[in-house]
Amino acid sequence: MSPANTQPSSAPDDPIANLPLLELRDGLSEVIDSDSALNDTVEAFRSGTGPVAVDAERASGYRYSHRAYLVQLRREGSGSALVDPIPFGDLSVLGDAIVDTEWIIHAANQDLACLAEVGMVPRQVFDTELAGRLLGYPKVGLASLVSEVLGYRMRKEHSAADWSTRPLPAPWLVYAALDVEMLIELRNAIEQELRREGKWDWAEQEFAAILDAPPREPKPDPWRRTSGMHRVRNRRSLAVVRALWEARDQIAASADISPGRVLPDAAIVEAASAMPTDRDTLQKLTAFKGRGAHRHMRTWWEAIDHARRLPDSELPKQGPRYDGPPPARAWADRDPDAAARLSAARAAVAEIAEAHRLPTENLLAPDTIRRLAWSPPPDMSREVVETFLRDHHAREWQIALTAEVLTAAMTSEAKKPLD
């Protein structure tokens, strides 16, 4: 299901053509960390032409916050810039200078929040990762797309680095600058493919939806995402997981340290499974022998002891809260008709996705299909299904492709005679 081969866009006599993408065309610029340098950068990017390639580096896995520790930009006529947002706190003056042009961002959903936190909010985006999905590329990471579409090899050895480090090492800065080095060329090549395949309008709707999406609300009971939770079997043990998770989260937030570096998920699950009866027993658990866990041993024991003493009425429920339909694996027993509708709807949507070389989840959100199959609207018709999809944030191109087959799937299963 991979797209047709695309030749590299660089001419044969281009000095960087047919080479690994290891060097910057304009050399490595100084990190912008002073008011005067920022003012010069603002003027340079205001006077540039065309779209702006934008990227941000966070310190995931090292810090509690998801703030940007480096912002990279590139624009025709402006060159590249590496901006350290920490000395400024707010980069709205830079965001305002480029707000009226298109921002090219790879995996925009990952970077828009941290960019907004420093005052950089686009009005128009081109998401190269999402565009790659619409084109059916099997791998849509930046390095994979640059290789497949433009013919350059990118190194990604610093992707998991601690970007809160100061000063940032020069090899890291080269890596960060390379992330925007080819984004403009990649965007232009991908637009040509989208137009050639009749998917440009789809992409425009998807890009607009990214900007129109409301801020993500925190998920209920975030402690339930603790890795290894499936090994916790009873409500009392769940209470221990919750208590330890919340205690860890408070420590991590106050120190701006990744929670996993304060206490690993494995330690939380081990304590919940062992249910120690005193502090000495807790200290003997394998996952609590490390220096990090030992530093806050009193806090961990107090959290566990509190969970052990909770009345049954205050213990967490076995399953997470969810306002949607039950897990699909339970449908056959609970509502066989709904299970049949879901099977028919999934098959119909998958067939359309395959015909258009799309991941099924990019054609229509799986949760939307489940909700429609579990509780279909009364007086089923295509117009009713279209309204349902629109109410669940489906884009018009998605509705045009799926409304008819979903209507057929819902009504055909409803009309089948009982055995």
TrEMBL record:
Species, as recorded: Kribbella pratensis
SMART domains per the UniProt record, alphabetical: 35EXOc, HRDC
InterPro entries from the UniProt entry: 3'-5'_exonuclease_dom, Exo_C, HRDC-like_sf, HRDC_dom, HRDC_dom_sf, RNase_D-like, RNaseH-like_sf, RNaseH_sf
Highest classification ranks of the organism: Bacteria, Bacillati, Actinomycetota, Actinomycetes, Propionibacteriales
Name of this protein: Ribonuclease D
SUPFAM superfamilies listed in its UniProt record: HRDC-like, Ribonuclease H-like
Entry-linked Pfam families: DNA_pol_A_exo1, DNA_pol_A_exoN, HRDC
Residues of the HRDC domain: 234-314
